[in-house]
Amino acid sequence: MIDDTQRAAPIVQASAKKKRGVAIQREVAVLLAMIVFNLIFTQHFVSLQTFNVNLTQVVTIVIVGIGMTLVVATGGIDLSVGASMAIAGALAPMLFMNIDGPLGIVLAFTLPIVAAALCGVFNGFLVTRLNVQPIVATLVLFIAGRGIAQVVTDGSLQAFTNPAFQWIALGKIAGVPFQILLMLVLVALFTWIVRKTLFGKFLLVTGGNEDAAYLSGIPTARVKMIAYTVCAALAGLAGLISISVNSSSDANVVGLGVELDAIAAVAVGGTALTGGKAYITGTLIGALIIQLLRYTLLAHGIPDAAALVLKAAIIIVAVYVQRKRG
Amino acid sequence: MAQTPLLDMQDIDIAFGGVAALKRARLTVAAGEVHALIGQNGAGKSTLIKILTGAYRKSAGTIRFDGREVDFRTPKEAREAGISTIYQEINLVPFRSVAENIFLGREPRRFGLIDWKIVQRRASELLESFGLRIDVRKPVRDYSTAIQQMVALARAVSSDAKMVIMDESTSSLDEREVELLFTVVRRLRDDGRAVIFVSHRLDELYALCDRVTVMRDGQTVAENTMQQMDKLKLVTTMLGRTLAAVVHEDSAVKEANLAKRGPVALAAQGLAAGAKVTDVSLDVHAGEAVGLAGLLGSGRTETMRLLFGADRPAKGTLDINGEPASFKSPKDAIARGVAYLTEDRKAEGIVPELSVRDNLTLVCLPALTKRGVVDVAKQREIVDGFIESLGIKLRSPDQPIRELSGGNQQKVLLARWLATHPRLLLLDEPTRGIDVGAKADVAKIVRELRDAGMAVLLSASELEELTAVADRAVVIRDGETVAQLDGAQMNEASIMDAIAYGAGAESTLAEAVEEAKHDR
């Protein structure tokens, strides 16, 4: 019995690895090619500073992108992540600036994320109960959410210095910024969730064939609700990192345009926007490709405006490749 | 039929991917007649219509319409030549007004502008001539399906169509709406236009049509007047069964099996929902296989969905293992040991991108989970077990299911349900679209499950397959149970009889079979 499983297992695992490898192989190849290009042509590329700068630039995009991957896997999309970031970013300073000591810090990390998660519950409610198309449903908070954040803060910029709170962005462990480690832990955690847990399977089934999921007794509405809630909560966390980096919170600016960067990272990372797939590591690689492209262009004196056009071009190529892969 | 017919299609051939869909098909329709075009699913009637209307191109044959030879390349060309098609899903513009829809693209103009007053007046006049008084300024989507059909017909009439094709136009209408529609169709006929009427409801064909063309396996197998084609002849021609072939032998085995069956597992009384299911009653015992027979569109799938909680019944009661059940969703039904293999494997069954392993364990997955994490070892054990016991052919269980053949996909889906250890198995067309070998395998599996004490309810369009597996049959027609045939009484002849004549009818076909036996 034991012999049998052991004999069968290696074949199965080998083919499984091959399968997963194929899925984001191309993205990894592109990323490696860009790194090689920079090693040869870009001055001062090999330095801890370059490494840290490039990675810290993508942290918020990747964290938001993880949630976006979950939502996209259900066949949906979330345009309101930037607004969720702004709401969390607006609430946190009000808590740690008004409540002293560890309690203020604890509340500043929890309540804003809960508030952001509630935005996700609202999105999920519109999508699952009222059957509003995800792009329209999340457009509601895309528009209103930032308004809420501005009302909360009276539209004023909150500047602060609070090392305890800002450690999430500025702290370092063994020379590596904590936010990068946090990002990698989240990537690993959600990769595991998607591959190994019941929720992960249900997520892919809900997006892969919703009718089949329903007839199999899978609670598709609850699965979607969880995806939207987790997505918004992660956006809230990204909002806290964003304000910590800047030592200030401006409801007009926090998370502005992040939804498009996150969607781009998801698409470039090989997750089909039609649903049924979720490549969390792909999203990380997608975000790195986009960031490295921008860095490369800047390092070679090409203006940011032109970089935007190239960013669009790479998304088109990525989506085209995906369609061919079918 | 003395004069040349309005439409004359002869020897039409077409093939899709090397498989012949039509072989020398014929269709002849005269002006001033309502012509029924019938056949089983896949018999080729839709393909023939699509060739006529220019959606497909024939590879051989001739089409003569209105005195000249034609070969429409696009639906637009067919429309301009005077052929108007009304599909099941009506192609009107939902948000535009009734009047606009009727005159779309042909609006009466004045000084280059559309004269809305004339448009509206002419539209109301036209609909009034159908006996329909509605506000033509309201958007089409505000009206019922029947009225939308009527608007589509009005559009056909006003465009001086010489021929109107109605493809299953009545399938979503209730009785009163059907009657209203028929009045309009008869008026079209009396005006000298031709109507091709595609429907699976036999009674409607007899109420409305003058002549009939029957298709089977891509060929035209009968052309006749409705009067000379009685219902029984129509059904046997359609299903391709002759009297000699329908006598069944092993009814003794079925009787013996019925004698030792277990208690009632499923009892449904007077189920009704929408227009498709009006009054279905049936029961299934443990250890028996019951066939749900009926023509396409008779409400088989809809009945199965009600039994599984995928749709909710408006009326009727349901008992599972002797206790009343009211399923809000499939989840509830699954919890009570009910399994449902869908008829539409692609749309409702497989999750194409997911592996065979995940597809197979989809329903039983929660049971294989500890604190939210899937027990991969257990999952592998179950999957490997079913791959062996059902003889599923694949490269690896991690292969996406879309790469498997239809028959193997079907076995995976069957295993998906068997892995939940159901007590009642609902199989909707389990052999649809799979090859002969896989069909035999599925039949064998069903017999084994029945012998192991499971209650099985299965439907099949092919009566031969149904009678081969089922111990008895429940026949439904137009969403109503019309007959229950046990063991010895059940054969293809008696089922066709019930489909044709319904309940109280004396089994004329069975008598004919008896006579044939005596003569021999």
From TrEMBL, chain A:
The keyword Transmembrane applies. Its main location: membrane. Keywords: Cell membrane, Membrane, Transmembrane, Transmembrane helix. The chain crosses the membrane at residues 28-46, 52-72, 79-99, 105-128, 135-153, 173-194, 225-245, 278-296, 302-321. GO terms for cellular component: plasma membrane. It is a multi-pass membrane protein. It holds the Pfam family BPD_transp_2. CDD domains: TM_PBP1_transp_AraH_like. GO terms for molecular function: transmembrane transporter activity. It comes from Caballeronia zhejiangensis. This is Sugar ABC transporter permease. It is found in: Cell membrane.
UniProtKB/TrEMBL annotation, chain B:
Residues 7-242, 253-503 form the ABC transporter domain. Gene3D superfamilies: P-loop containing nucleotide triphosphate hydrolases (3.40.50.300). Pfam families: ABC_tran. Keywords: ATP-binding, Cell inner membrane, Cell membrane, Membrane, Nucleotide-binding, Repeat, Sugar transport, Translocase, Transport. Its main location: membrane. InterPro entries: AAA+_ATPase, ABC_carbohydrate_import_ATPase, ABC_transporter-like_ATP-bd, ABC_transporter-like_CS, P-loop_NTPase. One of its GO terms (molecular function) is ATP binding. Signal peptide: none annotated. It comes from the Bacteria. PANTHER family: CARBOHYDRATE TRANSPORT ATP-BINDING PROTEIN MG119-RELATED, GALACTOFURANOSE TRANSPORTER ATP-BINDING PROTEIN YTFR. This is Sugar ABC transporter ATP-binding protein.
